[in-house]
């Protein structure tokens, strides 16, 4: 403590040495010294008047000692301990607002903090009307859009509490909580807040649709309506606003990704394929688009087409990727199982599938253990030594996959 006090006194002496020596400036140093010492000793009653002299006169030379944060702590203490009447609370609120305005004016560190605290004080401490409180938060968040979620929640609650059929505040509250849910999807509070704004998810969908209908060219409202439909699992309803968005901004990949996902969830397979092909044109280096369209073609049993997209997915990947190889193995296994027989060539196709599963396992990706399990599972379906022996195939011989149902494969296996 003695060392800290010595450093403080040395700092004061330095400040004195670089100033023009006149009574006013020396008194300012003295005022700050009295403020600092009283604050340090938790004598907030004595500290406050000296602090205001410094802040009202010229606090710039003391910024590094954080006078505004110290005065804020004093006002909080005053509010908690001395604000027994509405008049007293309002008086302290006005002082706090004055303090924050002055901090912003003189360039205190972290002005965003003071902007948000001003809105909070107007809401919590003052006699301001609900609209004035809302306006204070709107102004603060416009100046500091990356503010802590706590303050956004405060505005959301104000909107919700003061919502009427005419002012649209319920829609504004929904927008806030949807954004918060996007930013922090693990926080259930935001979903709870949304659910509290209506009787059920269907009503929330109707609210967001109404907001978009009244401002049809507003792309943000359109997106929010689609998002709410998605949360309510109303996928067909969500498609309309997303199709509107891609019509307005056909090169925005985010819109196409969302629309494609909705087509799949709504079982609109042909539309999903067309959307993926658009995504591939817009973003040809994205391996996921090739892979996802391959999955759709696999489900449609168009195995050759599915394989072509899996190969494109592998080429688009900057590093070895086990998933396209694993799914290609599934295509061969599927083809063999659909043949309806268990002849030698069927066994060879199973062997081909096993080889690709083994290749996927060697990559060591997230699917490697599953791929290794498939290799083991196919052990009794692939050609055995006697199958090769009776047909005169020796080790190292390549056997071409062929036959009416396997013409698309155009691969070979090697006898071990």
Quick rundown:
The chain is built from 21 helices and two strands.
Q: What order do the helices and strands come in, and which of them pair?
A:
Blueprint: H1 2-17, H2 23-40, H3 44-57, H4 67-82, H5 86-106, H6 111-124, H7 130-143, H8 149-161, H9 169-183, H10 188-195, H11 201-213, H12 219-231, H13 235-248, H14 253-265, H15 269-282, H16 287-299, H17 303-316, H18 322-337, H19 344-363, H20 368-377, H21 385-390, E1 398-400, E2 412-414
Antiparallel strand pairs: 1-2
Helix pairs in contact: 2-3, 3-4, 4-5, 5-6, 6-7, 7-8, 8-9, 9-10, 11-12, 12-13, 13-14, 14-15, 15-16, 16-17, 17-18, 18-19, 19-20
Please characterize this protein's 3D structure.
Strands 1-2 form a two-stranded antiparallel sheet. The chain is elongated, with a radius of gyration of 35 Å. It is built from 21 helices and 2 strands. 71% of the residues lie in helices and 1% in strands. The chain is mostly helical and 416 residues long. α8 (149-161) runs antiparallel to α9. The longest helix is centred in the first third of the chain and has 21 residues, at 86-106.
């Amino acid at each position: 403590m003695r060392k800290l006090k010595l450093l403080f006194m040395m700092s004061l002496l330095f400040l004195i040495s670089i100033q023009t020596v006149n009574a006013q400036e020396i008194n300012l140093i003295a005022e700050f010294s009295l403020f600092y010492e009283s604050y340090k000793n938790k004598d907030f009653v004595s500290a406050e008047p000296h602090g205001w002299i410094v802040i009202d006169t010229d606090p710039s030379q003391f910024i590094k000692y954080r006078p505004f944060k110290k005065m804020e702590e004093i006002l909080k203490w005053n509010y908690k301990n001395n604000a027994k009447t509405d008049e007293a609370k309002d008086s302290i609120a006005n002082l706090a607002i004055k303090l924050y305005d002055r901090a912003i004016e003189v360039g205190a560190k972290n002005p965003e903090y003071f902007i948000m605290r001003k809105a909070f004080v107007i809401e919590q401490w003052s006699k301001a009307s609900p609209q004035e409180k809302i306006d204070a938060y709107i102004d603060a968040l416009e100046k500091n859009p990356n503010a802590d979620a706590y303050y956004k929640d405060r505005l959301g609650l104000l909107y919700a509490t003061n919502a009427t059929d005419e002012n649209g505040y319920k829609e504004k509250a929904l927008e806030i909580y949807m954004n918060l849910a996007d930013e922090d999807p693990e926080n259930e509070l935001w979903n709870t807040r949304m659910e509290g704004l209506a009787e059920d998810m269907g009503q929330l969908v109707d609210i967001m649709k109404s907001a978009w209908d009244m401002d049809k060219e507003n792309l943000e409202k359109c997106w929010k309506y689609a998002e709410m439909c998605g949360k309510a699992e109303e996928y067909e309803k969500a498609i309309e606003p997303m199709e509107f968005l891609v019509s307005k901004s056909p090169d925005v990949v985010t819109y196409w990704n969302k629309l494609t996902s909705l087509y799949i969830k709504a079982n609109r397979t042909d539309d999903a394929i067309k959307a993926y092909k658009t995504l591939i044109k817009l973003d040809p280096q994205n391996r996921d688009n090739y892979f996802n369209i391959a999955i759709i073609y696999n489900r449609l049993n168009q195995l050759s087409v599915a394989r072509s997209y899996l190969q494109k997915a592998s080429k688009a990947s900057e590093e070895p990727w086990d998933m396209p190889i694993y799914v290609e193995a599934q295509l061969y296994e599927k083809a063999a199982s659909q043949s309806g027989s268990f002849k030698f060539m069927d066994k060879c196709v199973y062997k081909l599938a096993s080889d690709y599963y083994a290749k996927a396992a060697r990559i060591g990706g997230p699917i490697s253990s599953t791929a290794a399990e498939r290799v083991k599972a196919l052990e009794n379906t692939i050609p055995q030594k006697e199958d090769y022996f009776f047909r005169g195939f020796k080790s190292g011989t390549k056997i071409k996959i062929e036959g009416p149902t396997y013409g698309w494969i155009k691969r070979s296996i090697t006898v071990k």
